[in-house]
Automatic annotation (TrEMBL):
Transmembrane segments: 106-127
Biased composition (Low complexity): 158-177
Alphabetical keyword list: Membrane, Transmembrane, Transmembrane helix
Keyword Transmembrane in record: yes
Protein's UniProt name: Glycosyl hydrolase family 98 putative carbohydrate-binding module domain-containing protein
């Protein structure tokens, strides 16, 4: 099946690229390099090339894996010959791994066994983060142990790590839409620490709106003070939408739910990304939302953040079928760092 093949390819390449980035030239798999070459050749358009480049740059990020998997699944279905080539290449890669010397096959087992022994001895193992920007991963819950085998944990800025990370700071309650915004909503030092401010109330460059804003639904659930952008598979200008906001002295951003609204085509899959300052390559948080789904999204804002950019993009573009809808950031707000 196409979906199973796409999942196997993405998972195998992610594991390989992660190991390769850690060990450098010491890790080289000719069969998987061949698989990667097939993808580079097939996904050669600017849009597809960017999709693949993001995955190869950040193979541990769950959102990049899911975006590539969804698109690869579609390509395999549309081109059976490509699917056959990919299946043959993957069979060679799997067979090559089976032929590894016994000593090399035992290494992962020995690593895990050693980790268990350390746990029994009462020693805690802290795994090195594989975040693409080099930041350390968030520490685990006190009293737990993290054991890393073949695949490292997602980096601290991935959607999976973002949604599961806990801190000692209590998450602020959602601000009330009936309350007036602060006199200076873009400055987190003008209000008390922990005060939530709706993203829709933040100032914008040249006071220019590119998103729509107001109360809106995500999969028929209403959210106050939302922002959204229309997307379409048959309009080049609607493959993605971007909105930037100006702010300072805020510590985090929270989005109650991201997804499509109730009037959207039910088969659309969309990626939601949050960037800070002038960076449009490495999001501080990202998540790919499957058709009919909705997810929360949260990100810490690094010190010195002066701009916040929200981007919504179609995961798969099929111009032969015109599909459209609104990508909604439901009740998004930022949290003041305080005076």
């Amino acid at each position: 099946m196409a979906d199973e093949l796409a999942s196997t390819v993405v998972r195998s390449l992610a594991q390989y690229l992660i190991r390769k980035s850690e060990a450098g030239s010491a890790v080289y798999d000719a069969q998987l390099e061949n698989v990667l070459g097939l993808l580079v050749t097939k996904l050669s358009s600017p849009f597809h090339g960017e999709l693949l480049a993001r995955f190869t740059d950040s193979p541990a990020v769950a959102a990049e894996q899911e975006a590539l998997r969804v698109h690869l699944d579609q390509e395999i279905r549309n081109d059976p010959e490509f699917g056959a080539q990919l299946r043959t290449a993957m069979s060679g890669a799997i067979e090559s791994r089976r032929k590894l010397p016994a000593q090399r096959r035992l290494l992962p087992v020995l690593a895990v066994t050693g980790g268990v022994a350390v746990v029994i001895a009462g020693t805690f193992i802290v795994a090195r983060s594989t975040a693409q920007d080099g930041e350390a991963a968030a520490p685990g819950t006190p009293g737990t142990v993290t054991v890393t085998a073949m695949v490292p944990s997602p980096p601290a800025n991935s959607p999976t790590a973002t949604s599961s990370t806990t801190t000692s700071t209590v998450t602020p309650s959602l601000p009330s839409a009936s309350d007036p915004p602060p006199d200076n909503p873009g400055d987190g030092s003008s209000v008390s620490k922990g005060t939530p401010v709706f993203v829709a109330d933040l100032p914008k460059p040249s006071d220019q709106w590119y998103f729509e804003h107001g109360d809106h639904d995500v999969r028929l659930t209403p959210y106050q003070k939302s922002v959204w952008t229309p997307l379409s598979t048959c309009n080049d200008d609607r493959y993605s939408g971007v909105q930037q906001f100006n702010l300072k002295n805020f510590s985090s951003i929270e989005v109650q739910a991201v997804g499509m609204d109730g009037n959207s085509d039910p088969s659309l899959a969309v990626k939601f990304e949050i960037f800070v300052n002038n960076d449009r390559v490495k999001p501080v948080a990202a998540v790919a939302v499957s058709p009919g789904d909705a997810k929360p999204l949260r990100a810490e804002l690094p010190a010195g953040t002066f701009a916040l950019t929200l981007r919504s993009s179609l995961v798969t573009i099929d111009k032969s079928k015109c599909k459209s809808g609104n990508a909604v950031w439901g009740a998004a707000f930022v949290v003041a760092a305080g005076r």
